[in-house]
Amino acid sequence: MGIIIEIVDSFFKKNGLLSETIPDFEYRESQHDMAINIAKMFEDGGTYIIESATGTGKTFAYLIPAIISQQRVIISTKTKNLQEQLFFKDLSELNKFFKFNPKAIFIKGRNNYICIKKFSKFLQKKIFFEKEIEIIKEWIDLTETGDLSELNEIYSNKTLINQISSNSDTCFGIKCEFFKRCFINKLRLKAEKSDIIIVNHHLLFSDLKIKETGFGKVLPEYKYLICDEAHSIENIATEHFGESLSKYQLLFFTMELESFNEKITSKLKELISEIFDNELKGNERKNLNEFNIEKLKILADNLIFELKRISEILEDDALLNKLNELIYVIDKVFFDENKEYVKWVDYGLKNVIINCSPIQISSKIGNIFINLKGVLLTSATLSISDNFNYIKARLGIENVAIEKIYPSPFDFKKQALFFIPEDIPEPFEKNFIDNITYYIIELIKLTNGNALILFTSLKNLEIISQKVKESINFPVFVQGESSNIDLIENFKQEENSVLMGSYSFWEGIDIEEENLKLLIIDKLPFSPPNDPLKLERIKILTEEGKNPFFEYQIPEAVMFLKQGFGRLIRSSKHKGIFAIFDKRILTKNYGKIFIKNLPEMRIIKSLNELKKHSHIIL
Question: What residues have CB less than 8 Å from 253, skipping those under 6 apart?
Answer without folding.
Answer: 322, 323, 326
